[in-house]
Every structure is written in structure tokens, then in C-alpha cells.
Design brief:
By secondary structure, the chain is α/β, with parallel strands linked by helices. Helices cover 36% and strands 24% of the residues. α2 crosses α6.
């Protein structure tokens, strides 16, 4: 029997994706100095360990981590001495409660004193976070290797792998700013297609639907709000994408609401797997096919604390506090994420021993509307503000398509030039005639619900 062109194309694509997973991506990671493949294989073994064995592994790693930090990180060396904390006496992960919390303010203030003097080359990273407070920190190869390996493991839970064709609906300037020749070649080799979530007007969405159809990705990855917007657009147009070959849709970066999950799954004909983490706190948890939100417990310790800083029982909501054991180069110890979550003390039916997050009541991002009606992700504006010197905190309020207010809590370094950069950056995105009011205030308070919305849009979207 003959082979049809379609089947031949699929066969060649399968050969290509296997070579990426088994050869190209491991070589790529090794070239970058990452130990990703070995870590992923180890994580795929330890995920089936009992909770007791996992706790023993974490304790061993915690003690080694704290010993290194005490010897090589100036800030923590002084903190251990000042608080009388003895890492040698740690007998349980619960003993971390003997240390003060780490906050964004501490990281900004201490800076280089949080670097290990034994660290090699570090990668600069930054995030605006759900509070709108700019934060700069550094990543070592150990941290990056863990986060990539943990994400890779979670992807494979859903029957897809590195090298499977994917479409990423994303908006970070780190990704969008790297569209040079090397990045383009790498994306083609890894079968990854990036679509910007910053611009999601009607014409953009029409193009995205066509790309999904023609590219036939096995997985989608992106913000819940962006994927939901694409799904609802396709549904209102009577476009069915259930035959596009998608096996799983991965969401992260915002809270995933039930109506979003339902619409995304319906339109794309694939299950939705939620993930939770951040550039600062790391890859914290991911959903398995049985519905459990599993913590990356081998290198992540999560505490849930109340308003006084005390730990709350499983089933009770509180702030998520993270200790990342793969951050020797720039430690995150009892780091306050600002997100609200709930731990679960019940096992998952999938059989994995990894502990569970029962719920994440975290951040959610709004869209904004340009003067001409173009809809874009709110992060398009956030990235204008977050890296400016002297910005301690901010909040963006879009009152209409033609007027937007930016509330700034200024610090050292905030100047008239900073104000001008905000106005210029916003007008480049929203329109040259948009009124941009930059106001400095002493403090930014949260909403009545207790959550913080760093961007709020009251603009009316253009009619379809």
C-alpha cells in the first residue's frame, strides 16, 4: 500500500520530535551548562516515592542547602548569627520557621549580599510580580536546571514531550525581545511557535486561529486570559479547533477560572493543565491528569502562613511562602510570594507522592484597550514601568481608551526622565493622543477583597 503525503509528513514530524527530546534538547541544555536531562529522569523516579521518603530527601537537601548558604552568602551568614539560627540543628523542614521571611524589599535592599561567593556565572532575571513591585534577582545553573526539568516532567504527564509541536501565547519581553536569528533557528528546531499575547485585537485573533489550524500543535501554552480570549473568539465565529491535533493546553501566569478552563477545553478539544510558579519563586506546582496540583517537592518547600506569619493547617487559606533548594547561588528562603493558596493533606488518585495545592487564589491580569480599539494584554504596559529605576511599587488604572493613570510609589532614582519614559512607552502602545497621568503617592493599598490588582481597565472594548 502507498503512503499518503499527509501520513508521510506526520511520520517525518514524529521522527523530528523524538530527535529533539532525546538528542537536540539535551545537547542544548548541556551546552548552556544545565543538568536538565539527568534531573528530569531523577524527578520521574522520585515522584512515585512515598510522602515519608520525599520528606527525608527534602530534609537532606535542606540541610546541605542551609550549610552552603551559611558559609557562602553574606546576608544569610549574618542573619543566622543575629537570630541564633543553627542550620546543623535542623531536624525537619518545619524548622525553617526559625528564620524570618524573605521579601521583595529585602532582595532589593540587600542585592549583592544575597549572592553566594562560590557562585559562578549568574543569569540576571526580573519580574514585576502581582504587587507591581519591580524585582531584580539572579539565577544559577542549578536553579534553571531544576525548573526546566520539573516543567519537562509535568509536560510528559500529559503525553506530550519536548520537541512536540507547540504554540506559545505569551507576552514576556524576554521571549519577545529575542527574535533574532539564533532564537528563530532554535524555535524551528524545537518545533515551537511564539504568538504575542500583547496584541489580541480581532485581526490578530483571526490570524492566530489560522496558525493553529495550519501548524497543528500538539500542545498550547500561555496565559489563561489570553487562551480564553482566543477560544471565545473562535467559538463566536463558529470556528472549531477540536481537530487541530492538540493534546493538552498548559496555562500559567494567572489564576485559571472554571469558565476559562471549560471554554478552552471545549474549543481546542483538549484537557487543560494548570501550572503555578514565577520567575522569582520558581516552578512550584503543576496539575496532573487526575486533577491534583502537585508541588515540585524535591526542591521546593511550600508553607502557607496567616497574617501573623504562623503556619496554617491544610485546608486553610494563607499566603504561599516558598523555599527553593536549588538556589544556592542566590537563595530564596521563606520567600513571600504575595499569592494566596491552600494546601491539601489528601493523596492524589494518580499515585504520586508529591504533596498537593488544593487551591491557588493568585493573581489575575486584565487586558487594556488602545485608543483605536486594539486589545492587548495588560503586561504590555506593566513591562514599561517595572524595570525603571526608583519605582518601588505601581498600579495602572485605565479610565478610558483616552485616559490612563499610573500610580507610582517612588524610591531613590525616580526622576523626571522616568516619568517621561512611562508616558512615551504607554503612548507607543495605546496611541499618541492618549492622556497618561503619572502620579507619585506614598503607598498603594489592595482591593477590598484583599487581593492586589496591579492593572485595572475600565475601557470599553471595540465592538466586533
Amino acid at each position: 500500500m502507498g503512503t499518503t503525503p499527509g501520513r508521510l509528513h506526520e511520520a517525518l514530524r514524529d521522527i523530528g520530535r523524538v530527535s529533539v527530546s532525546r538528542v537536540l534538547f539535551p545537547l542544548h541544555e548541556r551546552f548552556k551548562g544545565h543538568d536538565t536531562l539527568r534531573r528530569r529522569r531523577a524527578l520521574e523516579r522520585t515522584q512515585w516515592w512515598s510522602s515519608q521518603d520525599l520528606e527525608g530527601l527534602r530534609l537532606t537537601r535542606l540541610r546541605a542547602f542551609l550549610g552552603h548558604v551559611a558559609a557562602h552568602v553574606p546576608y544569610y551568614r549574618d542573619l543566622f548569627r543575629a537570630t541564633g539560627f543553627r542550620w546543623e540543628a535542623v531536624r525537619s523542614t518545619a524548622d525553617l520557621a526559625g528564620l524570618p521571611f524573605c521579601t521583595k524589599e529585602i532582595i532589593r535592599a540587600e542585592g549583592d549580599r544575597l549572592r553566594s561567593d562560590a557562585a559562578g556565572r549568574l543569569q540576571r532575571s526580573n519580574t514585576g510580580g502581582s504587587t507591581g513591585e519591580p524585582l531584580v534577582f539572579y539565577l544559577g545553573a542549578d536553579r534553571v536546571s531544576h525548573d526546566v526539568a520539573a516543567k519537562w516532567r509535568a509536560t510528559r504527564w500529559w503525553g506530550v514531550d519536548i520537541g512536540d509541536p507547540e504554540i506559545v501565547l505569551w507576552g514576556s519581553p524576554i521571549e519577545l525581545g529575542a527574535q533574532d536569528r539564533v532564537r528563530a533557528i532554535r524555535d524551528r528546531l524545537f518545533h515551537s511557535r511564539l504568538l504575542p499575547a500583547f496584541r489580541m485585537a480581532e485581526a490578530d485573533l483571526e490570524g492566530y486561529v489560522k496558525i493553529v489550524r495550519s501548524y497543528r500543535p500538539r500542545m498550547l501554552f500561555g496565559y489563561p486570559s489570553a487562551l480564553y480570549r482566543l477560544a471565545t473568539f473562535a467559538r463566536t465565529r463558529g470556528e472549531s479547533l477540536t481537530d487541530s491535533g492538540i493534546r493538552a493546553v498548559f496555562t500559567t501566569g494567572e489564576r485559571l477560572y472554571d469558565d476559562q478552563r471549560g471554554a478552552i477545553a471545549e474549543v481546542f478539544g483538549a484537557p487543560v493543565a494548570n501550572g503555578y510558579g514565577g520567575r522569582d519563586a520558581g516552578f512550584i506546582a503543576h496539575e496532573c491528569p487526575a486533577g491534583g496540583m502537585h508541588l515540585s517537592a524535591e526542591d521546593i518547600i511550600v508553607e502557607i502562613v496567616d497574617g501573623t506569619g504562623g503556619r496554617v493547617a491544610p485546608g486553610e487559606p494563607g499566603e504561599i511562602v516558598v523555599t527553593h533548594l536549588a538556589t544556592r547561588a542566590f537563595p530564596f528562603i521563606r520567600y513571600r510570594t504575595g499569592d494566596i493558596g491552600i494546601l491539601d493533606d489528601l493523596p492524589c488518585s494518580c499515585g504520586r507522592g508529591l504533596p498537593l495545592l488544593k487551591d491557588i487564589q493568585g493573581r489575575s491580569t486584565d487586558f487594556v484597550v488602545a485608543a483605536d480599539g486594539t486589545v492587548m494584554h495588560g503586561l504590555a504596559l506593566i513591562y514599561v514601568v517595572r524595570d525603571l529605576p526608583g519605582v518601588r511599587a505601581f498600579k495602572i488604572i485605565q479610565e478610558s481608551r483616552h485616559r490612563i493613570r499610573v500610580l507610582i510609589v517612588p524610591g531613590t532614582g525616580f526622576a523626571a526622565s522616568s516619568r517621561e519614559r512611562i508616558i512615551r512607552g504607554f503612548r507607543e502602545r495605546l496611541g499618541s493622543m492618549v492622556e497618561v497621568l503619572v502620579e507619585t503617592i506614598p503607598e498603594i493599598t489592595g482591593e477590598k477583597s484583599g487581593k492586589f490588582r496591579y492593572i485595572i481597565s475600565h475601557a470599553v472594548e471595540a465592538a466586533p
